[in-house]
Amino acid sequence: MIQVLVNSVVYASEIAIIAVGVSLCYSILRFANFAHIQFAVVGGYLTYSFATIPGLALPLPLAMLASAVMTGLMAILIDILVFSRLRNTSAEGKMIVSWGVALFIRSIVAAIYGGSARVFDVPSSTIVVGDAVFTTLDVIIACATLVLMVALHLFLYRTRIGSGLRALASNQELAVTRGIPGDRLIRLMWFLSGSLAAIGGSLIAIQTRLQPSMDLVIMLPIFAAVTIGGLSNVFGAVVGALILSLAQNFLIWIDFGTLFFGDPWHIPTKFRDYVAVLALVLVLLLRSRSSAAAAKR
Amino acid sequence: MLSATDITLSFGGFMALRGVTIEAKPGTVTGLIGPNGSGKSTLLNVIGGVYVPDSGELTLGNLPLPIGRPDKVAQAGIGRTFQVPRLAHRLTVFQNMLAGERDHCGERIADLLLRPGKVKAQEKQASKRATAMLERLGLGHKANDYAGSLSGGQQKLLTMGMLLMSDPAALLLDEPAAGVNPVLIEQQVALLKALRDEGRIIILIEHNMEMIANVCDHVFVLDGGQVIAEGTPAEIRGNETVIRSYLGQPANS
Amino acid sequence: MLDFAVYSITIIAVWSILALSLNIQFGMTGLVNFGQILPFALGAYAAGIAASLGYPWWIGALAGLIAAPLIALLVIMPAQRLAQDYWALITLGAAEIFRLTVLNTPALTGGADGLIVPRIIDPVLAMTVAVAVLIVTFLLAQRISSSPYGRMLRVVREDEILASTLGRSPIRYQASVSVIAWMMAAAAGVTYAHITGYVAPSSFTVTETFIIWTAVILGGPGRNIGVIFGAAIIQLLGVSSRFIAQWIDLPPDLIANLRLASFGLVLVLMFLYRPQGLIPEAKQVHDAERD
User: Fold this and answer.
1) pTM metric for this prediction
2) Are C162 and B87 within 8 A, CB to CB?
């Protein structure tokens, strides 16, 4: 059982780092940004390049940092070129455009790097604790996420700039009339989202592998996590990622057979993917009952 | 007669309406006035089915009105306008008018595909009425312009026209004169009087006291979600409580 | 050269049907559907499964056309209580559930390998079939667009509360148009299956959904002939880029990715600079003399 918990925490960590960016964007700009997933992919590829290009070959942590900064800047650029001109467009419109941006980024990445998978060469040793087997890499991922989430929380709740972001999220017009520099903070939000996504994408790529189609693999779990936590609730996304991950892993692990019928039987592993999608759909159906009725007023 | 009895509604912890009772008779114009935030629009939204009250009753004639179903309320014969006019901006004025046609068989797929003649006939009838109504409102020359291109006052007239297409027994009007130039206001007043004389029930929210005095037979005054006074416009004008509430003091001080 | 023309027209016809199906849902009614590939795949798989079980083609076609609206109603039901961006996520989820189901039931659906479907061998016949289905779809879409029903769809798009104040139930219109749209897409799927002779999950991904979106936004949301035009341009870009790939001797994968990138770019640029599309929605002018 500890194994399940460990697996869940690690997976949740990777998802959470990327998911918070979606919530952050939604809380301030009020639309679901599908291009965000591509920030993670780009981040993974930039880390790879920084770490392996002969002549550059940065150590992995530095490569990730460089990738995070570059991806953050790319996110700002996208805001300048596209989303800042659409402030008055409906949320649906911005969503549709974000898909266009996503398609563009994904295709360029695939064009530059090719479709085949690459693997990171990361030394990692196995740790055994009781029944659970995991690697040092898993530990690093979980710790990194913890550190980043704590840092984000401190930033949002203990700094002036962070409070500005939260003010912007709760009431944009009011915040701007109070002198809070809306545009600059929005750019900052994009930088944060982009760089966090880059780190998350890099970690996923390091732990599994790097290929352009990884966006499809992570998209639904990320949006499921964000939805479970509440679309504009930044740390809700973290909770959502955890809940989703636990649900996925426990549902596969529980021996329903022995519980109900006496013969061991498990839900086949391949159904794990269903959990994310079904969770997404169910949560949307249940949650929005009250909030959408209020929103229509 | 349209009556709302003992309507109570709260949003979260905030009580928007506390036991409000009003009634409006056919062939009269009933005014609803009061300071901002007193609950006038909220009450209209309750009658119109946009909000569901916590308690209270709504009746039209002797029948209870559907609660919380704006489409059913409209089908029962109650039309309404909004403070900020609701229109299909990217459709023409004429198309907006036609959208007001009650029970158009052309909106049913079966009739659309199998009885094109019937659809065409109803469309023709509705077009005639729409043209006549637009002329009456002075918007005939704008028929083929996009509704979004009209001025604010013209848009308000258009929404009146749209609601009249369905020949409603009752009209709920939310600040028809707000932001409208005096000439158009006069036009609205003449229209309201004509509609009243046709025997319809009209409930009117307004801040324009001249219009209220000119057109209303009976007025209810709301403050803080309660009816604090009612009577003819003349009676209301001299009412101490009402004057105090408009000057910003609580109605029951 | 003639072969190329026949092939192009066939492909354009199929994608035009899909564009029309999204047009009546999004262009006219304002519903943001990110899962339009689902009914397309449903139609294609209905044809494929019927074929693999030995049934004649029209059983598969019928099954597809019946299954599609049923699923449509299932997916549209939440729309009443949900804001648009939430509903878009649900349609995305629905398409993904279908894809996963296909992958997980190889006995029925051939899994990742897909199914073989009896193919219309003669390319001209295939083209005729595709164009015939397109014409029927187009006529239906035009009838809807110029009718009181279409007018009310647009009112629902502009302002749902206005529609209810006028005595209509917006959800009824959203449901009925979705049923029609899904059936159109399913018809396209059945046609596609019999033209290519093969159905597999790899043909029905999210990317395909966005190719349909690009066609609609490019061509003119709300304008039937516009979205057909958009579909034609997109497909011509696709077909010609494959030619260029052979000519220039660049790897086809690279060209494919650059093509997709250009679609994404087109989507963004159109939204920024010409959201009404290349052929905008027509203004319905009323001639008072004719009444």
Assistant:
1) 0.90
2) yes
